[in-house]
Design a protein that fits this description.
Elements (H helix, E strand, L loop, with lengths): L4 E5 L2 H6 L7 E5 L11 H19 L6 E5 L2 E3 L2 E3 L1 H11 L3 E9 L13 E8 L13 E2 L13 H14 L4 E4 L6 H8 L3 E6 L2 H9 E4 L3 E4 L27
Helix pairs in contact: 2-3, 4-5
């Protein structure tokens, strides 16, 4: 049971703005951090972030979902709550929050610097409602396997894929900031089709070859071992604008 995968090398925002998504398409993504768009500065990045969330929520169909995986940052002595920014953009688009999960990046009780010990996983929709009486896990205790140092961990990807199959009519996952394609690979492993857009040509090439299975986890096609995490020197302010971040 494997879905199809389509990769586009280009600007994810422009691609997303070009046309509304079909009714069976869900958007699942992580928006770039301010460190990846240094030319904007803090205030302009905040406006850009909210605008892109609003666009994403508008472009999915009424009963489809837009799901965001984002990690807060601690910047200039202040806490930047990206879940709040996501909800501002979603509200502008007329979307409501279906669920909000926390994904532990390190064990609970571990002090962290720069970023908190958890990431947000938020699901938005304009028309869909949660089934009455349906319970779900609100805290994922670990990231799961990481295909690179800023990836969406496989635990969150699996939770999203299971939700899409069980509770929505969405059978194609769209990630306009797909990075090396972890969400696309996990979606395919669950039999869902996937479409990714990535500004970095090198990461787009990796995203075409990344695979995931429940037995073997994440690996690159043609290699026997899991992909290595990218070197830290490739990340941060020197990253290409629009590429995926550890959001």
């Amino acid at each position: 049971m494997t879905g199809t995968r389509t990769l586009h090398h280009g600007d994810g925002v422009a691609w997303l703005a070009s046309a509304p998504l079909p009714a069976d398409h869900a958007l699942v993504t992580s928006l770039p951090d301010v460190s990846e768009l240094p030319a904007l500065g803090d205030a302009a990045w905040r406006r850009w972030f909210i605008d892109v969330v609003a666009l994403a929520c508008t472009q999915v169909a009424e009963d489809a979902v837009a799901i965001f995986y984002q990690t807060d940052i601690k910047r200039d002595g202040r806490w930047v709550d990206k879940s709040y920014l996501v909800q501002l953009g979603a509200e502008r688009a007329g979307s409501h929050l279906l669920w909000h999960k926390l994904v532990c990046r390190v064990p609970a009780g571990t002090p962290t610097f720069g970023r908190p010990a958890y990431a947000h996983l938020l699901c938005m929709s304009r028309g869909l409602r949660n089934p009455p009486g349906r319970a779900s896990i609100d805290v994922l205790p670990a990231l799961g396997q990481m295909s690179w140092s800023r990836a969406m961990g496989t635990a969150a990807c699996i939770a999203v894929a299971e939700f899409l199959r069980a509770d929505t009519a969405c059978r194609t996952v769209v990630d306009p900031f797909c990075g090396v394609g972890t969400m696309l690979a996990v979606a395919n492993g669950f039999g869902l089709d996937a479409i990714g857009v990535e500004l970095s040509r090198r990461r787009a090439a990796r995203a075409k070859r990344l695979c995931w299975t429940p037995e073997g986890g994440v690996r690159t096609a043609g290699e026997d071992r899991p992909p290595e995490v990218d070197a830290v020197s490739e990340l941060g302010p020197t990253s290409e604008p629009g590429s995926v971040s550890e959001p």
